[in-house]
Amino acid sequence: MSQHAQHCLIRVLLLWVCMLSISQVVFITLYFSAGHHNRIENVTGGAITLPFKNNHSLPPPEPKPRLGKGKMLNFIAHPTTDSGAVKWRPRYDTEGLVTVKDEVLTIDKDGYYFLNLQVTLQTCKNVSLLEGHSNLIVKVMWTNKNEKRTILEGRINMDTCSTGLLAMVTAFSSEATLVTKINMETPKINHTDSLTHLDIIYMQL
């Protein structure tokens, strides 16, 4: 075979190898492109969608506490009885929540009650305590039917002649009664409303 013929054959073979290589590259590209597209369609049903969270798997939000409508009552002291019970007089309308009769406060409506009490005496030196007591004590007695107990209690400071602020919160049912007592005979109370007062904040159940 002549040298010219060999050169022509080599060129034909090189051209054939190049065509086969190009065909393989095109085939592989088309194969993988079509396969990837089909996988997307199989998963998403023909449309590409973003991942999302299932709201049903989330815990429901906790309900916010519901607070009832609040009302504030304020009482100022009158001269006490011989038994040491404090008489209270409402400064404002009690709005059907508390009925006042002498030293007895009667609860008229079920609910939560926040009590804030301070009692101050004009003098606490050389006082005559009731039998069986060695300290000046102020108590708020709660009575409901046959049940009776102390719900608020504080000692009178002998330097200031005052209990300071006494506070507590509890639930009262209607017809319960409250009586404030000092363990001395006819105590002389300082009637200045900033020194002796009973405040009640009501919240409905």
What does this entry look like structurally?
- This protein has a five-stranded antiparallel beta sheet, with no helix packed on it. Strands 3-4-9-6-7 form a five-stranded antiparallel beta sheet, with no helix packed on it.
- With 205 residues, it is of the alpha+beta class.
- The chain is built from one helix and ten strands; from the N terminus they run H-E-E-E-E-E-E-E-E-E-E.
- The radius of gyration is 45 Å and the shape is rod-shaped.
List keywords for this structure.
205 residues; alpha+beta; five-stranded antiparallel β-sheet; 10 strands
Task: Summarize, please.
The protein is α+β, with helices and mostly antiparallel strands.
